[in-house]
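Handout, section 4.2: multi-component inputs.
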Amino acid sequence: MALIRDLVVQFFEMIMVLALAPGLVGLVRKAKARLTRRRGASLLQPYRDLLRLLRKEVVLAENASWLFRVAPYLIFATTWVAAALVPTFATGLLFSWSADLIAIIALLASARFFLALVGMDVGTSFGGIGSSREVMIASLAEPAMLTTVFTLALIAGSTQLSTIVAFMNSPAVGLSVSLGLALFALIIVAIAENARIPVDNPATHLELTMVHEAMVLEYSGRHLALIELAAALKLLLYVSLIACIFAPWGLAGAQAGAIALFIGAGTYVAKLAVGGMLLAIFETAIAKMRVFRVPQFIGVALMLGLLGTLLRFVSRSF
Amino acid sequence: MPNLAFDTAHLLAGGLVLISFMLLYQDRLTSLLNVYALHALVLALSVAWQAHLQNAPHLYVTAGLALGFKAIIIPVALRRIIERLGIHREIETVVGIGPTMLAGMALVGLSMVVMLRVTAAATPIARQDLAFALAVVLLGLLMMVTRRNAVSQIVGFISLENGLNLAATGARGMPLVVEISVAFSILIAFIVIGIFLFRIRERFDSVDIGALDQARGEQR
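Output:
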């Protein structure tokens, strides 16, 4: 009976992240439009776009290999699994034994690997530029993410997300400068990984500096729908990762009843809305930086992660 | 929470190291001065927290001196100087920001290894203050080495002095007379350097230290 209940909750969690992800993208777009005094499309527009793309025919380039057709499903699947591992509204879900931060990073990295491959598959120069830039950003963002994970693991004593969240929710956390540094590093990594504004512009297809859009330029129809959905899931994953580590209030416990789960889901949606609004405000306030400035920007995250680990060692040595 | 005393001291001292890194990262003079003012403000807070912990009223005077001189008077005066010199352009760094940051991380690691080993007998707060203070001093030296603009070298010098201040307060405070005389000597050094800046500029039409090498007859 308990197993069936756990399965139902885990299944609900996976469906919920899938259903909420385009809504979060719509919210960020709407908020950005309102901040620049435009009306903006409705919150439901990303859902409509996805439906339209699913109904459309797929146009393949003549020299596209089998990888080009398989990759969207792989990218979508790995990203969805990664998003299902993050404790969104409850800890101690069925999959949480495998919800290791390093496993999540590895899943996202394999999705990025396939994306970079298919960017080069058709052989257009634009896709090649996008892939090379994506890999350049990733080679800096992944170490930064890993040092952040080391800091968190040193503080909480585990890289497993449920344990970290339980530790963060307990009064034993205290006041630690390392946690603040980890938060900033994680925010910078999230911005870079999701191709948000100081690094890449998610709203345009027609810029020489674009990264993510350049790689997926050759896709159409249901393949494009899957890739866009995977990108939305990735954004949701990072927002819920930051929310569950640094704002773990309202999360339901391991064997919580229906009311606690309901409260957890409600606070989760509220946290997503706050995160989306903050992202929109940040993106409106800042200009896109030159591609050659991006390594410096992500280098700050790497430095913050290293510094957090070092400072943690000092306070642990007593 | 029994550990609040240590955690707050750790937060403020760690923040000071972080702001030293922010100083290294800045490449515009005006934002450099803003970050320096923040550096001094965090130092004042840290010293005031030590005064509270050690029950030492004279340390409040130190905090007040840090706040008045270093967080307000020196940044404002330096800003006047760079406005009169008309240099709001970018700082030229000798090596790029990336290698500088990596060197800075190595220095922080070094100071922690050295200080935590040497001061095994001291109290935890004093130990971590000493470790962070050495890091701030080394980062200030690094900044003086990597910058060629005279104004940013001054900022490196006075951020180094902030590190000395942190060390002194962590080690049970220094006598008030010493404290005040150090504060005034910094102020005098600052005035002398300010005059020098104008002399350098008058003679060479620039505050780039490289111009001095040429005046000595050395070819770059």
